[in-house]
Amino acid sequence: MPVAANALIQVVPGLMIWTIVSFGITFFVLKRVAFGPIQKIIDERRDRIRQALEEADNARDEARRLLEEHRALIGQARSDAEEILSEARRVAESQRERVREETEVDRQRRLEETRRQVEAETRRALEQIRAEVADLTLIAATKVTGKALSDADHKRLIEDAIRELDFSALEGSTS
After folding, report:
1. Which residues contact 67 (CB under 8 A, 6 or more apart)?
2. Radius of gyration (C-alpha) of the chain in whole angstroms
3. Amino acid 46: pLDDT
4. Cβ of 21: how many Cβ atoms within 10 Å?
5. Whole-angstrom distance, CA of residue 138 vs CA of residue 155
6. What is the spatial distance between Cα 165 and Cα 168, in angstroms, rounded to a whole number?
7. d(CA 10, CA 100)
8. Could you tell me the pTM of the whole model?
9. With contact defined as beta carbons under 8 Å apart, do 129 and 77 qualify?
């Protein structure tokens, strides 16, 4: 048998057999003791991740549904506001007809009173719309996040939702 220049690469049959036997025993012990539990942990983690993804998909679908409901409610609130404004305009027109028959001073006084009533009714309607939007925003945020929010979070969400809505068209039509 030739002698290798380096002792680490020298072929020693007895050492090779014991190394293979030791490797086999170690592999068998690891397979029995470690690989099974490790694979079980990996499978459990994979199941938890899959379940979390399914829950996230469900939450996203629920959020979309709530957003559609929210949009429908906002559309209804806008149409209600337009109806209120239309009714207020009809009231104002009848007020003006009645006032024309009276003296000029009385007419001016009643016209101003009617304008204040229209503005007050519009402000009340807009505040009601804002309150409903705030409630819907809180409900949607609670369902999406799955947790209760602090008062500061509630206030911030309400302000953000109201800021994103365009009430200028409704407010501008009363001037």
Report:
1. 140
2. 38
3. 96
4. 10
5. 9
6. 9
7. 121
8. 0.33
9. yes
